[in-house]
User: Fold this.
Amino acid sequence: MSQLLRRVEALLPLAEALCRALREEVRKLGFADASIIIPGPDAATYRFDRDPALGTDSLVGEWRDSQGQRCGMLLFHADGSFFAEHDVIQLHPANPRWFVEAVNAWGRDGDIRAEPRLMPVVA
Assistant:
């Protein structure tokens, strides 16, 4: 088994927890269950990427849409920190003054925090 596959396998429980956190943010915003699909970590394509600040390899997983454009990512740093995001790109379902660009989740050592990334709608 390659080093990349071993790392992906080792981080799978955390990646699944990040996906759940992203889905929960979408749900809390009030979107219908099927309107925003956050795929599981198994749908991502993974690679190592050098972290310029730490000089270590980070594991990056990316989700792509049907046109091949990146629509989300999972990022795991060697220091135990992590980040995930997925595009929403829709008006807020409960407050049309806000546009929901994406949902984000981040943390370290299993402590996950999440929030939407909102932009005001200019009339």
Observations:
- The helical segments are 3-29.
- The longest strand covers residues 81-91.
